Amino acid sequence: MEGQDGQGGRDVRDGQGVRDAPEGQDARDAPEGQAGQDVREGQDVPDARDARPVRDGLYERLRAYEGRAAAVAGSGKDPVNEPMIRHWCEAMGDTNPAYTGPDAVAPPAMLQAWTMGGLSGHTDRGEAYDELFGLLDAEGYVSVVATDCEQEYLRPLRPGDRITFDAVIEAVSERKTTKLGTGYFITTRMDVRAQDEPAGTHRFRILKYRPAVKGKAESPAASDKSEKATERSGERLRGRSLRPRPVINRDNAGFWQGISARRLLIQRCGACGTLRFPWLPGCNACGSSEWETVEASGEGTVFSYVVMHHPPFPAFSTSGEAGPYAVALVELAEGVRMISNVIGVPYDKVRVGMLVRLEFLRTDPELELPVFRGSEG
Length: 377
Known about the structure:
The chain has helices spanning 57-63, 82-92, 127-138, 220-232, 253-260; strands at residues 69-75, 143-153, 163-172, 176-177, 181-194, 197-211, 236-237, 240-241, 265-269, 275-276, 291-295, 299-308, 325-332, 337-343, 355-364, 367-374. By secondary structure, the chain is α+β, with helices and mostly antiparallel strands. The strands form four sheets. Strands 1, 2, 3, 4, 5 and 6 form a six-stranded antiparallel sheet that branches. A five-stranded mixed beta barrel has the order 12-13-14-16-15. A three-stranded antiparallel sheet has the order 10-9-11, covered by helices on one side. β9 (265-269) and β10 (275-276) form a beta hairpin. The longest helix has 13 residues, at 220-232. The two termini are 40 Å apart.
């Protein structure tokens, strides 16, 4: 699965309780059955044996799959080719000259792209992989969310290279509890070859989980916290649909701080001066981690757009009804692009090249978002 909004190769997160710790192991994700003991003066101290973790029989069965093949002698459906490289670079806004011309190489972050099965899937997937997922499904862990990936590049890929790969179930975590629900983190490692030479390694980690049950009996404090989280998650507030909350992390926190001050901030590399959006921890052009911000003027044009008809989601329509709405890739005057809604014109009047102007739309008491107002003139 590729990263969205130009963030291929980075951690992929759902934003509802799964963070970027390699195994989801933050303070929230302690294995079940390991709650701390509160011992006060005058109370009996429990026997140490009573504090032992509850035995997880399912985890022991899942661990048996570690080291087993997830795919054997897989092959890419297409060799490395220039059209896919061009589409990738256009989508990412990557103009590095290394990816064009007679000596072109593929962007390293495309490593997974050459191994993907597409809508028809893979025919070379190992039985162990299906068995592992079937076991989890049977126990109620039916939902899945990608959490992060790691890539290592061993040699450049060039047009014409034939891609083959093997994959292994590298690790299964202990049971974890997240805001999404309780489940297990599964890490798959894929070893990629080009012309039978090692080309790179791709590790992909998912959370296979049992969705949290709403309304489950909790302590008063936990219940209050849960209700607030539900409101903020974009479900309902006083009977009105809300937009989902944005994912805010250490890499983009500065952007959302700017939005709260009604400023649209763009990163600028401190080494080469290249502007970038969405926010990233490093420069695509030179790799520097040094950066500063510049404020966008707010002027832009519609670079491309889609009209969303289904599924109906009232929170995204300007009328509050579940009607169609326009989502555009806006090219800012500064040269970077961002995705947002176009307001001020009917959805069927949005056009490529339409001039738009930045506005800030308060969608509910806790959320303000950057949108773009179009003009039919």
